[in-house]
Design a protein that fits this description.
890 residues, alpha+beta, six-stranded mixed β-barrel
C-alpha cells in the first residue's frame, strides 16, 4: 500500500501542482505555529516565538524544495524541464540540429537494418503456432570414430531419432526430416523442386495442418517405400497447378514415381528451413526418391534434422538432462564416441553447422556497420564540442550561481539523447522501409541454389528494442565526453573572457577534436581499404586466367541415379548420349566428369604416401580420357587416361603442385598413393595446374581418377563446340529428350560457372563500397567541420598575422598543417589495423594478396586527397580575411 500511496502522491504532485503546493504551505505553517506555541508557553510573545522558530528552522522555501526533492516525481519534473530546454536549444540552432540528426540517422539506421536481417535469419522463431515451445536438437560428436554425413555432421541417423523419440520424457512430440531433397516434377510439368522427407508426425508436432486434405498418418510410414503420398505447398499448388480445385486425391510424378496428393499446406507455411519446401513426402519414401542410397538403414549416418515440442512446464535444463541420458546410452554402443547436445529454441538457422558459419560472418558484418556508427558518433561529438565552446559563458554562469556539475552534465546529456532519439527514430524508419527491398534484391542475385531464400525482416519487438537501446547508447556515447569537457571550467577566466577566446582547456578541447577526427579517419581507412581489397579481388576474378579453356565449352549435369537408373542402364544411356552428341553439327569433342571445373562440386578423401605416417586431404575428380583436351588442361609429364581404363585401373593423374608437395625434388611418375581404404594407385601422368576446384587457388592438392560405370549415375557432360551456343544447346537438349523424354536437362556455358564465384563477391564488394563511401562522407564532413570551426575561432589571430605581414600562402599553410596532422595519424592507424585483420577477406580475393600494394597505396592517397579538399575550402576562406575586419572580430 505504501508503494501505491507513493505513486498516487507523485502523480498528484505532477498534475495538481498548485493545490499540492498550497497544502504544503499550510502544513509547514501549521508546523511553525505548533513550534511557536511551545515557545509561547515558556513566556515568549507570539511575534518573538515565530521569529525564533523561523531562525531555528531556516528558510521555508528550502524546506519545501527538500520535501519536493524527496519524491520520485521531482526526478520526472527535472527531466521534463531539461527536455523542454533541450528542445528550445535545438530549435534555435537548426543547422547544427540537422547535421547531427542526419549523421545519427545514417549510423543508427544501417545498424538497425542489418540487425533486422540477422533477426529474420537467426533469432526470429519459426512461423508456426506456439513456436516458443519448439526446440531444435543437434548432436556434437567427439572422439576417435568414423561417421558418415549427409547434409550435416550434427544431424541424426534414423535409429538415433527413434531412440530419442521413444525414450524421452520432455516432449509432447519429436519429429525428424531430411531437408533440401531434390526431385523432378514430371507428368508434363517438368520442374526441379526442393522439398523434405519427414516423419509422419511432422505436421502434428508443428501444429500446421493442411488447408486442404490431410497431413500424414502413421500408416503412411508403416513400411519403406510402401505408401507414395505427398503434401504439396500452397505456392506450388497455386503456381504450377493453377489452384486446381480437385488436386487432392490426384497423382503427381516425382522422380518418375507417382505420388498421391493427400494435402495442400496452409498459405504461408514453407517448412522449417530458410529455403522453402515445395513438397513433403514420408521419410519411408527416401530410397524411392533417391535410389542411390538407403539412408534409413545406415545407423552411422547423420542426415536427419530433429525438432521437438516441449510438454507444458518443461524447462530447457530438464530437456538437456533428459536427452543427455539417452545420448550416453547410445554412446555405449559406439566405443570411442561421446556426444554433447545443443538444444535451442528453433529458428531458420538454428543448426550447429549453420551457426558456426553464420557467427563469423555476422561478426564481420556487425563490425563493419558498427564502424560507420562510430564515425557518425565521432562526427556528432565534434559538433557538440564546437557547440559547447560557443555556450561557455552560459555554462560558466550557471555553474557560478550554484548549479552542480552533475546537474549541468545531465542537461547536456538530455540534449544529446534528444538528438539521438530524433536521429535514431528517423534512421530506424528508413531502415524498416528500405532493408526489406534491399534484402530481396541481394537474395535475388545470389547463386540459384539459395536464390529462393526467405527471410522475414519486418520489425518486431526484438528489432524495436535493439533500435531503442542502440539509440540511447549512441546518445550517451557521443554526448558524455563533450558534456564532461564542457562542464569543467575555470569560472573566473570564462566569465572574464569573451566567447571567441574562452574555453575549458582550450588545448584539451583542441586535442579532443583532433582525436575524434583521427578516429573518424582511422575507421574510414579500414572500411575503404576493405572495400578496395574486395574491389581488387572482384577485378581479379573478372580477369583471372583459370588455367583451362572455358570458352566454347557447354556443360550439362545429369543425375541418372535420382531418376531410377542403375549402373548398367546408366552406362548404356551415357554411351548412347555421348555418341549422339558427338554427331551434332559443330561439336568437336565430348567428355564427362564427376565434377565440372568451378562447379562448386567437390569430392575429397584422405591419402597417404608409402613410408609416411601423416594423412593428406586431397580433392579428386573422376574423368573420361577426353576431359583434358576438352577443357584444355595439358598433360605435362607422362600420359593421360586411355579409353579402356576405368575405376579398377591403378593409374592416377596428379597436378604439378600436388607432385611438388608430395614428392619434392623427385619425379612423381610411378610414385604410389594409398587411399583411406588401403587401395594403392600409381601416378601415370602430371597435369598442368589449373583453378578447377577453387577460383583463385591454383595450388589445390588435386588428382584425377579414370571414370567408371558407377560414375555414370551422377555426371557432368562437357561438350567442346565451334559456332553458335544456342544451337548447340538446343541440339544437346533434343538428344537427351529423344533418349529419355522425362529426363530433366539444363545446358549452360562452362564459363557461366565463374558467375557463381563472382556474384557473391560483387554483392560483398558493393556493400563494402557503400559503407566505405558513407564513412568517407561522414569523415569528410568531420574534417571540414573541425577546420571550419578552427578558422572561425582564429579569425582575430589570422588578422593579426596578416596585419604583421604574413601573406595568404603562409596562412593557408598554417591552417592545412594543423588540419592534416590528425588525418595523417588516423590514416596510419587505420592502415595498420586493416593490415592486421585483412586476412578475413582472403576467401573473397581469389588468390589476391590480403596486403595488395595497389589497394594499400591508392586508398590512403584517395583519403588524403579528400581530406585536403575538405580542409582547403575553409582554409581558403581564411585567406580572404580582411585584416581590418579581423582585428575588430570578437
Amino acid at each position: 500500500m505504501s508503494l501505491l500511496r507513493s505513486i498516487a502522491g507523485g502523480l498528484r504532485s505532477l498534475f495538481r501542482k498548485e493545490q499540492v503546493s498550497k497544502e504544503l504551505d499550510e502544513e509547514l505553517n501549521g508546523f511553525l505555529e505548533l513550534a511557536a506555541e511551545e515557545k509561547m508557553k515558556q513566556g515568549m510573545r507570539r511575534n518573538d516565538a515565530l521569529r525564533a522558530v523561523r531562525l531555528e528552522r531556516g528558510n521555508l522555501e528550502v524546506s519545501k524544495e527538500a520535501v519536493r526533492a524527496a519524491g520520485w516525481e521531482s526526478i520526472v519534473e527535472t527531466c521534463w524541464q531539461d527536455l523542454r530546454f533541450a528542445v528550445r536549444v535545438l530549435r534555435n540552432n537548426p543547422g547544427f540540429t540537422a547535421a547531427a540528426v542526419l549523421a545519427i540517422a545514417l549510423g543508427v539506421g544501417i545498424n538497425v537494418g542489418i540487425f533486422s536481417v540477422l533477426n529474420g535469419a537467426a533469432l526470429r522463431l519459426l512461423p508456426i503456432p506456439r513456436a516458443e515451445q519448439v526446440v531444435s536438437i543437434d548432436q556434437i560428436l567427439h572422439g576417435q570414430f568414423k561417421r558418415n554425413a549427409h547434409n550435416g555432421s550434427s544431424m541424426f541417423s534414423y535409429s538415433e531419432y527413434l531412440d530419442y523419440r521413444d525414450h524421452n520424457h520432455v516432449f509432447s512430440g519429436l519429429l525428424a526430416y531430411e531437408p533440401f531433397v531434390e526431385a523432378t516434377l514430371g507428368g508434363g510439368k517438368m520442374k526441379e523442386l526442393t522439398g523434405a522427407l519427414a516423419t509422419c508426425n511432422y505436421f502434428d508436432v508443428l501444429g500446421e495442418h493442411p488447408a486442404e486434405g490431410r497431413g500424414f498418418v502413421e500408416s503412411d510410414c508403416a513400411a519403406p517405400g510402401g505408401n507414395a503420398v505427398v503434401v504439396i505447398s500452397d505456392d506450388l499448388w497455386r503456381g504450377t497447378f493453377a489452384s486446381h480445385p480437385s488436386l487432392v486425391g490426384k497423382r503427381i510424378i516425382l522422380n518418375r514415381t507417382a505420388y498421391t496428393v493427400v494435402g495442400i499446406a496452409p498459405p504461408g507455411f514453407r517448412g522449417t528451413e530458410p529455403i522453402p519446401s515445395s513438397f513433403w513426402a514420408p521419410i519411408t519414401m527416401q530410397k524411392v526418391l533417391d535410389p542411390w542410397s538407403d539412408r534409413m538403414a545406415d545407423e552411422n549416418l547423420s542426415w536427419l534434422a530433429v525438432l521437438g515440442r516441449l510438454q507444458p512446464g518443461v524447462m530447457m535444463e530438464q530437456v538437456r538432462a533428459d536427452l543427455n541420458v539417452i545420448a550416453g546410452r547410445i554412446d555405449l554402443l559406439h566405443p570411442g564416441r561421446s556426444t554433447s547436445l545443443a538444444v535451442r529454441t528453433a529458428t531458420f538457422f538454428s543448426r550447429q553447422e549453420e551457426r558456426e558459419i553464420l557467427t563469423p560472418v555476422v561478426s564481420v558484418i556487425f563490425a563493419a556497420f558498427g564502424l560507420v556508427l562510430l564515425v557518425a558518433c565521432a562526427n556528432v561529438a565534434n559538433l557538440l564540442l564546437a557547440r559547447a565552446s560557443v555556450r561557455q559563458k552560459e555554462i560558466a554562469l550557471r555553474l557560478s550561481i550554484g548549479a552542480s556539475r552533475w546537474r549541468l552534465v545531465q542537461q547536456l546529456l538530455t540534449e544529446s539523447l534528444l538528438l539521438s532519439l530524433i536521429g535514431g527514430t528517423l534512421g530506424s524508419l528508413l531502415a524498416f522501409w528500405s532493408f526489406e527491398a534491399i534484402t530481396r534484391l541481394i537474395i535475388s542475385h545470389l547463386p540459384h541454389e539459395v536464390s529462393t531464400l526467405t527471410l522475414n525482416v519486418a520489425p518486431d519487438f526484438r528489432v524495436l528494442g535493439y533500435g531503442l537501446g542502440l539509440t540511447f547508447l549512441t546518445g550517451i556515447g557521443f554526448g558524455l565526453i563533450p558534456a564532461l569537457q564542457s562542464s569543467r571550467q575555470d569560472l573566473n577566466t570564462s566569465l572574464k573572457e569573451d566567447g571567441a577566446h574562452s574555453g575549458p582547456g582550450k588545448r584539451s578541447g583542441r586535442f579532443l577534436r583532433n582525436a575524434l577526427v583521427g578516429t573518424q579517419v582511422a575507421v574510414c581507412m579500414i572500411l575503404l581499404l576493405a572495400a578496395g581489397l574486395l574491389l581488387r579481388g572482384l577485378y581479379h576474378a573478372q580477369t583471372v586466367d583459370p588455367g583451362f579453356e572455358m570458352k566454347g565449352v557447354a556443360t550439362m549435369f545429369l543425375n541418372l541415379g535420382q531418376q531410377g537408373y542403375d549402373d548398367t542402364r546408366g552406362t548404356a544411356f551415357m554411351g548412347r548420349l555421348r555418341q549422339r552428341i558427338s554427331e551434332l553439327p559443330g561439336v568437336i569433342e565430348v567428355a564427362q566428369a564427376e565434377c565440372a571445373p568451378l562447379s562448386h562440386d567437390f569430392s575429397a578423401d584422405a591419402f597417404t604416401v608409402p613410408g609416411r605416417v601423416e594423412k593428406i586431404g586431397i580433392e579428386y575428380n573422376h574423368v573420361s580420357p577426353e576431359y583434358f583436351s576438352v577443357v584444355g588442361v595439358p598433360i605435362v609429364r607422362g600420359r593421360g587416361f586411355l579409353p579402356g581404363e576405368t575405376h579398377d585401373s591403378p593409374g592416377v593423374v596428379v597436378t604439378e603442385s600436388t607432385a611438388r608437395r608430395l614428392w619434392p625434388d623427385e619425379d612423381a611418375l610411378a610414385k604410389t598413393l594409398r587411399e583411406s581404404d588401403g587401395r594403392e594407385y600409381s601416378v601415370i601422368g602430371v597435369a598442368r595446374d589449373a583453378q578447377v576446384a577453387h577460383l583463385g587457388d591454383v595450388h589445390t592438392t588435386y588428382l584425377y581418377f579414370p571414370a567408371g560405370p558407377q560414375d555414370n549415375l551422377r555426371v557432368y557432360t562437357l561438350v567442346r563446340y565451334a559456332g553458335d551456343f544456342p544451337a548447340t544447346a538446343k541440339g544437346i537438349r533434343s538428344v537427351v529428350q529423344s533418349l529419355d523424354a522425362d529426363m530433366p536437362v539444363d545446358v549452360t556455358k562452362l564459363e557461366d560457372y565463374l558467375e557463381v564465384w563472382r556474384q557473391p563477391s560483387r554483392i560483398v564488394a558493393a556493400l563494402s563500397g557503400a559503407l566505405g563511401a558513407l564513412a568517407l562522407l561522414l569523415a569528410s564532413i568531420g574534417v571540414y567541420g573541425v577546420v571550419s570551426y578552427s578558422v572561425s575561432r582564429r579569425v582575430h589571430e589570422i588578422g593579426v598575422r596578416m596585419a604583421l605581414g604574413a601573406d595568404r600562402t603562409e596562412v593557408m599553410k598554417l591552417v592545412l598543417e594543423q588540419a592534416i596532422g590528425p588525418v595523417l595519424i588516423g590514416g596510419v592507424v587505420g592502415v595498420a589495423a586493416c593490415a592486421a585483420v585483412s586476412h578475413v577477406l582472403s576467401s573473397m580475393l581469389f588468390g589476391l594478396s590480403a596486403h595488395d600494394p595497389i589497394a594499400f597505396i591508392s586508398v590512403p592517397l584517395l583519403l588524403l586527397i579528400v581530406a585536403m579538399v575538405a580542409s582547403y575550402i575553409p582554409a581558403r576562406r581564411a585567406m580572404s580575411v580582411d585584416p581590418i575586419v579581423a582585428l575588430r572580430y570578437e
